[in-house]
């Protein structure tokens, strides 16, 4: 493998989207978990639905739409300042605990992000998390007016970094993103944060399940589209060794 | 309103996709509800993801893929005959109890289905439910190799029935489908089967929620894309009167 650039998905891969639960639960005690999960699930849906309708809106607008859907659907009142306070967390998401160390260990490669996020929200969260100096480029899909997993989006890596698909290792924990990147022709590492065994134990045979468990069941296993990841790690901490092994 | 044709969405609007729970729970006692919900949520996701990747597969294949994802994700073993038995329910879905009477009351209009389903699975479920003689046409998106809510799909009504968008009333309980049809330019009735109030009561402030409740929260409220339905009913039983009033 002649990898020159390692390109990361942002939300759910480097940045823990579950970390919004701190603000959603503070705003609506007892509802934090269900808000957090529905918000994220609808956010992704809206990227796909708007792309398919030919009605692109940027990821900040979509993140607002999906939060509005979530609060309205749950019958939770909100005013502008509360809404904005919750939204602001998207500019201050926590990094996964092993993210910075993994990126630092890979600093001999060209490192970048390719994300659905708008340029502004990506720049904000990258700066606020202290990753700005480690990353060569933060690439937003916004210039293409379509979202992952459209092949048009992954092409931006070549356009922006000037490297061919075979010189890129793409890293994502989002299975649909793994499939999209493979479909375009990149080498891909899937960060498999939830194994099938762990999920099975968590669901058990329970009649009711926690919204966070439902989220895992919906979003954290591989989609069976016939695109297998080239590499699989269980956390970002394993990535440097996996890259070294792959040569 | 000079409506000539009333065109229905199939799955979730005329046919109760929740009626698969009878077979999923028989096959996997205690897991019927969670299988049913994840299966349907992933089925829709896959229509969007495959459309966006430019990797169309017909709805029968997608329904198989989403069932496989669901069972594998939950760690549930399956052999070919069990899998096929569950899939077969998609050709024998129950009608909503008020569907046939509503369609019969509207028989002075040209009546049709426009659905994501493949032609074969639609023809099967229409015949098995006794709707074949009531419907003039059963239109599958399959000829366009893309799924709802792409505008290309809604154009099939004009192609197949020879009526203009202003002469069509489209009826769907799926909010993304309502938005897609409005985006294309049809008049649309939304069958709002779950109100915000009912959903709020059902969710309460519970830590764990039933998968069916999570499904309702994710799929049964209007998407905030700025496309409002022209008419709203709470059940198909209300449709004939609503159509008569709209003139």
Inertia-based shape of chain A: globular
Number of helical stretches of at least 4 residues of chain A: 11
First-last Cα distance of chain A: 6 Å
Radius of gyration of chain A: 18 Å
CATH-defined architecture of the largest domain in chain A: 3-Layer(aba) Sandwich
- Give the quaternary arrangement of the chains: homodimer
Written description of the protein model:
By secondary structure, chain A is an alpha/beta fold. The first copy, chain A, folds into two domains: 5-17 and 93-246, HAD superfamily/HAD-like (Rossmann fold, 3-Layer(aba) Sandwich), CATH 3.40.50; 18-91, DNA polymerase, domain 1 (Orthogonal Bundle), CATH 1.10.150. In chain A, 47% of the residues lie in helices and 13% in strands. Chain A has helices spanning 21-27, 32-53, 59-73, 80-88, 99-105, 119-129, 151-161, 175-184, 196-203, 211-219, 239-246; strands spanning 5-8, 15-16, 94-95, 110-115, 137-140, 168-172, 187-191, 231-233. In chain A, the strands form two sheets. The first copy, chain A, has a six-stranded parallel beta sheet, with helices on both faces. Chain A is globular. The termini of chain A are close together. The interface between A and B is large, with 53 and 53 residues.
């Amino acid at each position: 493998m002649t990898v020159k650039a390692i390109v990361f998905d942002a939300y759910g891969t480097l940045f823990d989207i579950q970390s919004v639960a701190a603000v959603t639960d503070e705003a609506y005690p007892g509802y934090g978990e269900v808000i957090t999960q529905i918000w994220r699930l609808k956010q992704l849906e809206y990227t796909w639905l708007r792309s398919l309708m030919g009605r692109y809106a940027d990821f900040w607008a979509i993140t607002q739409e999906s939060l509005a859907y979530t609060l309205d659907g749950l019958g939770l009142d909100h005013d502008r300042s509360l809404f904005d306070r919750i939204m602001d967390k998207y500019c201050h998401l926590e990094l996964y605990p092993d993210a910075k160390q993994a990126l630092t260990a890979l600093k001999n490669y060209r490192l970048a992000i390719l994300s659905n996020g708008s340029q502004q929200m990506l720049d904000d969260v990258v700066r606020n998390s202290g990753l700005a100096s480690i990353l060569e480029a933060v690439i937003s899909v916004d210039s293409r007016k379509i979202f992952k997993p459209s092949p048009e989006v992954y092409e931006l890596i070549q356009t922006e970094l000037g490297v061919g698909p075979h010189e890129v290792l793409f890293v994502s924990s989002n299975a649909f993103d793994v499939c999209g990147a493979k479909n375009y022709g990149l080498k891909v590492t899937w960060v498999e944060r939830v194994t099938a065994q762990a999920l099975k134990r968590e669901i058990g045979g329970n009649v009711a399940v926690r919204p966070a468990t439902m989220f895992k069941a919906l979003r954290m296993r591989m989609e069976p589209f016939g695109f297998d990841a080239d590499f699989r790690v269980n956390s970002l901490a394993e990535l440097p060794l996996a890259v070294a092994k792959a040569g």
